[in-house]
Amino acid sequence: MRAAWHEKQGPAREVLTVCEMPDPIAGSGEVRIRIAASGINPGDIKKRQDSFGIGMAYPRVIPHSDGAGRVDQVGDGVPAEWLGKPVWCYGTQPYRPFGTAAEFTVVPVERVAPLPGNVSADQGACLGIPGITAHRAVFVAGPVKGHTVLVQGAGGSVGLCAVQLARRGGAYVIGTVRSSSEEATAKNAGAHEVLRNDNAQEFRARLAESAPDGIDHIVEVAFGANVEGDVELLKMGESIASYATR
């Protein structure tokens, strides 16, 4: 198969190799997926650049944790009905050397989910880390039905998923964006209201109109920068879930 890999860390143009290597074989409890789309996340880039200072976990790494494609081989103990199914996968690379930046990837079947017929492989490859992060951030403090949820950074990958999940969970959803180009995207994702947060005074005035009693739960993309303001916005005893901070 053709694959992209690196055997040292650094900038992509300096360390990535695209070449042939042997096809992987599905082991016990695993499936092999013929990859149609590979999802790139910030963590993939940070590991390649050694942003965490922990070095190479394996001598050779095929990057990317998320992907989508079709199962073309199953290992022992995996039901045969998985064969030929369109799927999306997650957690492929963090605890294994080979991820989804290749023609094939092998992954435990518990990290694979069917891809509905109306969802493209490109969309499926974006479901793993962003979708799971968003789900955790929205529901970690409990159900949100009837609550007012503020999603900071509603135009980003996680933010868009969080808006959709919170709306589906029965919340009144307010999304914040930094530019007008993101407003329609956040609105289409299901936000009841979308506010620009590049002007603090105007933002607070509009939020006071939208949620005069305060916010029940905040999904936060910039905890360090926003925590003081977030605390002022929250009702007493309510919650913040942060998935990023400086």
Describe this protein with a few key phrases.
246 residues, Quinone Oxidoreductase, Chain A, domain 1, Rossmann fold, five-stranded antiparallel beta sheet, five-stranded parallel beta sheet
Short description:
With 246 residues, the chain is α/β, with parallel strands linked by helices.
Structural summary, described in words:
- The chain has 246 residues and is an alpha/beta fold.
- It is built from eight helices and twelve strands.
- The strands form three sheets. It has a five-stranded antiparallel beta sheet with strand order 6-3-4-5-7. It has a five-stranded parallel beta sheet with strand order 10-9-8-11-12, with helices on both faces.
- Helix 8 links the parallel strand 11 and strand 12.
- The radius of gyration is 20 Å and the shape is elongated.
- The two termini are 39 Å apart.
